[in-house]
């Protein structure tokens, strides 16, 4: 996601596209897209649909690539320079400060409900390592709407995709998810009053789930002694009305878990967000584990732990922190972190290192005027390819694409 404008605009046009198939093509200078537009989106021959603003796309003369592409051309990597090419406008951006190269055509996905977005849907980060994370791919799909059915459906290690069609009210106890499982929310599906746990498991995916208000001691998602978990495009929240210990964590990772990616989630209105490593005294089990990636998450109006990382190795890039009132990244107990191109706004304690004995290599961040605690460590290059976007595009892309109902599931 290298250009906020194209990203914002693409969904609107494609929404319009989905709603209209039979009209005559739009004449030169006519409207062909926009957030509330429902007319035809195909321009007459010789014209292309060009973004003007979020509410107005116009047919202009030319033969440049249009936004009606439905193919996803993806990423190549090289370690020398970065070139960004997008097809929804004519500009090309080249930068040289990054070690990752991304070539991305305008990505279009169409959801089962007929809506479309241009939001990215590809796994990156540590969940791609150690053999990768496929969840229940290849297994059967079952849709559930009750707590009892959910518990049954996610149990066991057989490959399976479990789709939640509504908000299921939990009973305060964890719902244990077995290995080789994908848990998906239909748009608006998820759980409240309880949470998921992966315990001594591997290969689990959580996507598009709306998860909120789980009183302690149950986290919304807990990953315990488990490997290869991807937490992507979910929404997590509670409220700030009940004190910081009333609800438990949103995404807590503990007991030597490893190879986890937490991406494109929207976390808001909560105190203790994501704790990696539950205790200063658990180094024997945790040291050498907790390889975690956090990217493109939208953190808004939260207390702390974004994340708090003990002992492990954290790659934290392209996240947007807004109105964080206690602390943001807390690298502690010897943890090594690489912190790239994040944006912090109206947030305090943006980066803690020396206070709690951790390390950080920050590159390209916009601290929003706050002062990070610096303590350079040894983690300087991530061991996988990834699409690092320019800091200037982060706010737009993250606020547009983080959370639920943004991708096809
Ligand atoms: C997960 O699935 C793989 C491949 O189907 C299988 O070999 C493995 O035993 C499963 N994992 C567990 C923990 O059962
Ligand atoms: C900054 O964040 C605080 C705490 O979340 C919030 O109360 C305040 O309204 C924010 N200020 C601005 C200017 O956004």
TrEMBL record:
One Pfam family linked to the record: Pectate_lyase_4
Subcellular location: Secreted
Region of interest: Disordered: 70-137
GO terms for biological process, alphabetical: polysaccharide catabolic process
Main location, first listed in the record: secreted
Signal peptide from the UniProt entry: 1-24
Keyword Acetylation: no
GO CC list: extracellular region
Keywords from the UniProt entry: Carbohydrate metabolism, Lyase, Polysaccharide degradation, Secreted, Signal
Domain of life: Eukaryota
SMART domains: Amb_all, fCBD
Keyword Thylakoid recorded: no
Biased composition (Low complexity): 70-118
A single MF term (Gene Ontology): cellulose binding
Stored InterPro entries: CBD, CBD_sf, Pec_lyase, Pectin_lyas_fold, Pectin_lyase_fold/virulence, PEL
Domain named CBM1: residues: 24-60
UniProt similarity note: Belongs to the polysaccharide lyase 1 family.
Protein name from the UniProt record: Polysaccharide lyase family 1 protein
